[in-house]
């Protein structure tokens, strides 16, 4: 069973079951923007991976914690619609300007996120 299959999804009213997540990939020449329709309660990391938009660098695509919030390699910048922080890393992110861990962000409202450059981990492809 994959990490995504083992994570519970939140039950919601079918009329309001999806929200839009706008994803900006600032690492491309065209500054590509993709809109995703995401079920409320979905983990942001899972939504990105399902859409073929990896939050990981070249070297961390295979070597990461699998969404457990331990390795800090799936960081994204939340530009609007930022959810309330509830993970220990979120406090550091707010204080020092670090990206949020996409594996610890649940999509409950529309949001805009940026896929950030991963200089330390070999850059994004």
UniProtKB/TrEMBL annotation:
InterPro entries per record: 2Fe-2S_ferredoxin-like_sf, 2Fe-2S_ferredoxin-type, Beta-grasp_dom_sf
Residue span(s) of domain 2Fe-2S ferredoxin-type: 17-119
Gene3D superfamilies from the UniProt entry: 3.10.20.30
Pfam families referenced in this protein's UniProt entry, alphabetically: Fer2
Any one GO MF annotation of this record: iron-sulfur cluster binding
Name assigned to this protein: 2Fe-2S iron-sulfur cluster binding domain-containing protein
Organism: Haloferax denitrificans ATCC 35960
């Amino acid at each position: 069973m994959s990490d995504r299959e083992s994570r519970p999804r939140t039950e919601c009213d079918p009329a309001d079951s999806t929200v839009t997540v706008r994803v900006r990939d600032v690492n491309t020449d065209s500054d590509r923007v993709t809109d995703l329709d995401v079920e409320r309660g979905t983990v942001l990391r899972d939504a990105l991976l399902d859409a073929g938009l990896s939050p990981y660098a070249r070297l961390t695509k295979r070597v990461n914690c699998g969404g457990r919030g331990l390795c800090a390699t799936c960081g994204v910048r939340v530009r609007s619609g930022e959810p309330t922080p509830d993970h220990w890393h979120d406090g550091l992110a707010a204080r020092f300007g670090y990206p949020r861990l996409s594996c610890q962000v649940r999509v409950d409202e529309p949001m805009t996120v940026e896929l950030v450059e991963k200089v330390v981990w070999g850059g994004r492809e």
